[in-house]
Amino acid sequence: MGEATLYGLCGAALVGLGLFGLIVHPQPLRKILAFNLIGGGVFLLFGAIARRGAAAGFGGDPVPQALVITGIVVAFSATALAVALLLRLFQETGQATLHLDG
Amino acid sequence: MSLALDVLTIVAVSAGAFFFLAGTVGLLRFPDALSRLHALTKADNLGLGLVVLGLLFQPEGLFAGLKLITVWLLTLLAGATVTQLIARTARPGGAQE
Amino acid sequence: MTDRPLALDIGLAFLVLGVAVWTIAARDTFAAVVGFVAFGLLLTLVWARLAAPDVAPTEAAIGSGVTGGLLLGASTRLHGTQTPAPGEKPGAILRLAAAALCTVVSAGLAAIVLLLPEPAPTLAPQAATNISATGLGNPVTAVLMAYRAIDTLLETVVLLLALVGVWSLAPDRVWGGFPGPRHHADPDGLLPFMAQLLVPVGLLVGIYIFWVGSVAPGGEFQGATILAAMWVLAMMAGLVDAPAVSRRWLRLLLVAGPAVFFAIGLAGFAMAGAFLAYPEAYAKLLIVTIEVPVTLSIATMLALLVAGPPERALR
User: Is C179 helix (H, G, I), strand (E, B) or coil?
Assistant: First the structure.
């Protein structure tokens, strides 16, 4: 399955890109974005494995696909909580940074 | 018969793709937000309409064709509304009512 | 889907990576968020190419749509605070070290992808042989609601816990109040007009996608997201106000889905001998009985997660 390996490699690259953004950006909102990129990469890895498992008349193995759907929903709930925490931090301190002095 | 339908599909979808391309060129080359919005909506609505028209020639059944047309109409509605909203804030006087 | 030419896939993969690089490298946070939304929509195309017609709409709706809306709202509120102070930006050494680490991680994952066993192990044959017992036609829905129903139950609980976490961030004086600012509907305005046209259609489409998920691509999460989006649109257009988080009907609506799911799970002990086991004759009926309140609950949870913590006090 050529496209499964291709998108699997794409997912591996996305995990690395997201990890770089997570480490390098000081702003929390950019870190949340990078974290979602890591999530997208991991889901693509699952998708590649699912595509390789095509059998019995299905285009892909349905179990990893269902896991990805669950993962997308859970990633959204984590992002929503993280964004709410960030906005509350901004409300309290007037800045949106993790490097608070004093 | 199916060859003729396939040719019609290819012609219509290619014309639609050309309009998408024209809209993207307008997005990149026009000087300000309002003219870019103009290029985008005119080109993309007609582009999507031609793509949907091309796909209607493929035999998928009445229900699938109606779904495609519904997609196009919903995109028209969303695109028109969002364009108006963006244009109101982007015009030189700002978002005065 | 075998032996398709790879040119489209190569182009799409490069486009996905390019937009991801843009999301990381953009200076302006708003531009990065827009890049992220585009990234999500391109991922939807990738899922379609990976023969996953249930994952693609979920990625478009939740991964790109709701998450993008949330992040756009946050980036607008935080506008002006997003330029890092000079002392905060990492130096060249940290960047090089991070790049080296990330390259090692990516290379490791790429090696795993290239060294995956051939022939690929798969559960598809077992999913196919047992699907007639569930009464469903969509294998992914069968996995979500029958084979791995415990995961779906816990997922709804996780969403609920995230919502409770978001609500707990309200300041004391607005505790239990109304989420978000009050949007006023200009009667001749554009957004109320579009909402009045779109919400009925959206509700119909959402219910259809939920209902058809038992035999075709679709399902409760995709349908629930569309219903949630219609509620958020109505709130943003000012047609309805966000409900106060202390309202009992709202809390009952939120808990109904997980509660029914859990109750039917417990009943599985009596009916078929294990938690969340369905007797074969009633499997489809039980699954639909679970799915309807779960869809409503998840739609409510998603809409309220977008609305955020309370900001206006109960009078």
Answer: strand
Q: Where are the domains of chain B?
A: 2-90
Quote ipTM for the complex.
0.94
Is residue A65 within 8 Å of C54, Cβ to Cβ?
A: yes
Check residue C235 and give its pLDDT. 92
Instruction: Name the strand (E) or helix (H) holding C178.
Output: strand C178-179
Angle ∠(C245,C246,C252) on CA atoms, nearest 5 = 90
C-chain CB neighbours of A53 within 8 Å are 120-124
Question: Which residues does chain C have within 8 Å of residue B88's beta carbon, measured at their own beta carbons?
Answer: 190
Q: Are C191 and C237 in contact (CB under 8 A)?
A: yes
Task: Give domain limits for chain C.
Answer: 1-78, 123-312
Instruction: Considering only the beta carbons, identify the residue of C186, C191, C197 that sits closest to B77.
Output: C197
How far apart CA C151 and CA C156 sit, in angstroms, is 9
Helices C29-49 and C7-25 pack at an angle, to 10 degrees, of 160
Question: For residue A40, what are the domain limits?
Answer: 2-93
Contacts of B77 in chain C (CB under 8 A): 194, 197-198
Structure tokens of C256?
């109904």
H helix runs in C80-184, sequence order: 92-114, 124-134, 139-142, 149-167
pLDDT-derived band of residue C4, with 50, 70 and 90 as boundaries?
low
Look-up of token digits 């505790």 = C175
Residue-averaged pLDDT of chain C: 90
Q: Are the Cβ atoms of B85 and C191 closer than 8 angstroms? A: yes
Q: Do C194 and B77 touch (CB under 8 A)?
A: yes
Residues of B in contact with C193 (CB under 8 A): 81
Of A10, A29, A32, nearest to C16 by CB-CB distance is A10
Residue A99 in domain? no
Each residue's pLDDT tens digit, B75-88: 999 888 889 888 88
**Contact at CB, A97 and C84, closer than 8 angstroms:** yes
Judge whether A90 and A96 are in contact, CB under 8 Å: yes
- The Cα of C198 is separated from the nearest Cα of chain B by a number of Å equal to 8
Provide the pLDDT confidence category of residue A55 given band limits of 50, 70 and 90. Answer: confident
Specify which residues C312 forms β-bridges with.
C178
Nearest CA in chain B to C194: B81
DSSP output for C282-313: GHHHHHHHHHHHHHHHHHHHHHHHHH-SEEE-
Contacts of A1 in chain C (CB under 8 A): 1-2
**pTM (2 d.p.):** 0.92
The type of residue at B94 is G
Q: With contact defined as beta carbons under 8 Å apart, do C197 and C224 qualify?
A: no
C186, C194, C233: best to mutate for the B interface, most B CBs within 10 A? C194
Percentage of chain C modeled with pLDDT above 70: 96
Give the pLDDT confidence score for residue A102 in this predicted structure. Answer: 45
